[in-house]
Amino acid sequence: MEKTKIIGKKIFKIGFKISYRLTGVILIGIFVYGVSPYSLSAPQSVTITTKAEWETGTNTDIATNGTIETRDAIQLSPSGDWTARVWAPPEDIIGGGHTSVMVDNYLYVMRGYSDKAFWRFNTESSEWETMPDLPMPSYYGANMLYDQNGSIYIMFGGFSKKFYRYNVAEQTYTELPELLDTPWVGVAMETDGSDIFVLCGNTSTDFWKYDVSEQSWGNLSATPGNVSTGGNLVNGQNGYLYLLRGGNTNYFDRYNQTTRAWDTSPLTCLQLDVPAETAG
């Protein structure tokens, strides 16, 4: 009988301790839920709409290749999947005289089509924005150049000599001294970081330089051959400007910025491999 009483007391003590601890757990749970009801629920989704919001987050449950600095890929975990992104189309159709240029995260676009429409596309939000109309309609021979210093230089084509600078921050146009002749197809602009070099195109050999600090034009050595449709000029970042003459030719030339002259011998012409069965 005495043993039974002792066992009963032990069982009572154990039951009391379990009940006491269980009550504590329940009270803690009620307190946590009252402070933050979502803490005991399933994970909540978060919508990210901007680059800034994305960069404030922390990478979890993903595999990464490289870093943000190297702009490498971020992959979903095996259970995730990607869907195609829908890109917003321009506000109107694009026509002859269209040209575009990148400025940071924005693509600036002239519609062409003898129109003054001027837009920019935000590559991060996939949204278009209408900018102030161009001072002149743009047509064949139009071109734009970003100077990497807040300004876009604009030629309007359509046999117009007008030349303008667009201030990106202020969204304003400034008229500059006119071109030396009327540009047409094959026109191109390039910069050496200070001044602007221009091919007139229009099946000509005209080659000019615009002195930005002096705001004046000057003639340079004529191109080795006529420049027409498809002509282009690129800074090789090695002291040379490289020229593709276009006009259904494969001529390839370079301009020495130190001697201010074209190489006397053209570079190796572009090669086009044509299958034997179509050659003739």
What is the fold's blueprint, element by element?
Blueprint: H1 2-35, H2 51-55, E1 63-64, E2 74-75, E3 99-103, E4 106-110, E5 118-122, E6 127-130, E7 142-146, E8 151-156, E9 163-167, E10 172-176, E11 188-191, E12 196-199, E13 207-211, E14 216-219, E15 232-235, E16 240-244, E17 252-256, E18 261-262
Antiparallel strand pairs: 1-2, 3-4, 4-5, 5-6, 7-8, 8-9, 9-10, 11-12, 12-13, 13-14, 15-16, 16-17, 17-18
Sequence stretches where pLDDT stays below 50 over 5 or more residues: none
CATH architecture of the largest domain: 6 Propeller
**From the alpha-carbon coordinates, what is the Rg to the nearest angstrom?**
34 Å
If strands are numbered along the chain, what order do they take across the biggest sheet? 3-4-5-6
> What fold name stands as the CATH topology of the largest domain?
Neuraminidase
What is the N-to-C order of secondary-structure elements (H for helix, E for strand)?
HHEEEEEEEEEEEEEEEEEE
Q: How would you classify the quaternary structure?
A: single chain
- Total strands: the figure is 18
How far apart lie the N and C ends? 118 Å
Structure description:
By secondary structure, the protein is α+β, with helices and mostly antiparallel strands. The chain has two domains: 1-35; 99-262, Neuraminidase. The protein has two helices and 18 strands. The strands form five sheets. A four-stranded antiparallel sheet has the order 3-4-5-6, with no helix packed on it. The radius of gyration is 34 Å and the shape is globular.
